[in-house]
Amino acid sequence: MIRLPVVALAVATITCLWLLVFPMPPAQLSITTAATDGAYYRHAQHYAERFAAHGITLDIQPSEGSEQNQKRLRRAVDPTDLALMQGGFGYLGASLDRRDRSRIETLANVDVEAVWIFTRNRELDSLNQLQGMRVAIGPEGSGSRKVALKLLEQARIAMSELTLSKLTGSAAVQAMRQNQLDVVLMVAPTESFAVQNMLGLPGIQLANLRKSAAITERNPYLEPRLLAQGALDTRLPPRDITLLTTSASLVAREDLHPALKRLAIAVAMEVHTGGGLFHRAGDFPSLRRIDFPTAPQARETLIHGLPLLERLLPFWWAQLTERILLIVLPVTLMAFWLMRLIPTYLRWVLESRVNRWYGELKFIENDLSQETLSGLDLTRFLLRLNSIDKALMAFACPKDLMARCYTLHQHIEFVRQRLYKMRGR
Asked: What is the distance between the alpha carbons of residues 273 and 268, in angstroms, rounded to a whole number?
């Protein structure tokens, strides 16, 4: 009557907390990147290898670029869990809808990407010199296209003055090789396939834009960085060049499981710890100049690492142990305490009832010791005794109180006989 309902309630509580309040993380994640020949896709492949070591499958979804990645994170049906985003699509780019700011969170900045402007047989130091040229700025939805259109707009160059192309990556390299393009503008890290191949083409020049500081003032997501002479190899670049750069970020949808956010940050710390052309080893991952709100787990994980259980145990064992400690153990102890407390409380209630009858009987005995008692007083005492006796007969007495109830019944009978004698006196 007591233990079975308590056990059922405990099982129901554990089930509700486990499934609804503190559920286990899913075993599959998705990440949206960019083209398959880009650096984002290669980073995602490294992520997939490390996630697999923790028992999680990472589905890599190529895309046209950061704009499409952002839409995939925000969509209401089947949103993507993670994305690699180019800088300029959030706070710093002033392009983020205020109503949607809380739907995407920054886990960490993971890399530096340069705005590469490759030209054929001509040196450029101003965007105004692009007029009349065939310029590749990437497909719709790509970060390269967004940056290019923004820079051209600020330079007051009308689209009608250019022949724009959607080519990017290896397709743009092939078009430059075949003299089908004059300029290629792309945002990519130095080690990307397209940048390395473009630098190897004969007659290809890197634009060295003047007034780069003014450009970065108008575009806070961009930073000027020096590409020193001979930094790429002994011949490239032939002189110091100032390039515009932006950051690449690993972001997640807001409602992604917190444990998976922590694990994604830890994976990024493994993949992006090395140095690059524009940063030193250990500079990334970081939370400097973020484009979206920081995930609550980001700063803690970057500074202190994973929680103790996730450091000591495999990922799934850590999640299971955490739920046992936070859900199963407290609820079980509470159920055990209730199974001990409820019977004790009920016994106290029953004993209090018997003691109350004993107390009433004691008051009657004390009143009978008075010298002057009328017949009306004796009748009143008798009615009180009969009410106690009637309540005692209706009382469902447990076995361990039967002896006390029987003794109380005898005492009532003893006092009743005494009343009868006093009435006949």
From this structure: 8
Beta-bridged to residue 225, according to DSSP, are 243
Backbone angles phi, psi at 136, to 5 degrees: -95, 125
pLDDT tens for 229-257 read 887 777 778 888 888 999 999 999 999 99
Tokens 């450009």 belong to 215
Q: Which residue has the tokens 């029987």?
A: 406
Q: C-alpha angle 253/256/261, rounded to 5°? A: 100
> Model's pTM, two decimal places?
0.79
Eight-class DSSP state of 217: H
> Can you tell me the distance from the alpha carbon of 400 to that of 182, in angstroms, rounded to the nearest whole number?
101
Between helices 315-323 and 258-271, what is the axis angle to 10°? 150
Using only the alpha carbons of the chain, give its radius of gyration. Answer: 40
Q: What is the DSSP string of 60-78?
A: EE--S-HHHHHHHHH-SSS
Q: SS3 for 156?
A: coil
Q: What are the residue ranges spanned by the domains of the chain?
A: 33-306, 324-423
Give SS3 for 38. Answer: coil
Q: Count the alpha carbons within 13 Å of 404 in the hemisphere toward its beta carbon.
A: 16
Residue 339 burial class via C-beta count within 10 angstroms: exposed 0-12, middle 13-18, buried 19 and up: middle
Pull the structure tokens for residue 105. 């969170």
Which helix H or strand E contains 263, and what residues bound it? Answer: helix 258-271
Start-to-end CA distance of the chain, whole Å, equals 52
- Homologous superfamily in CATH for domain 33-306: Periplasmic binding protein-like II (3.40.190.10)
CA atoms within 13 A on the CB side of 292: 31
Mean pLDDT of 114-140: 87
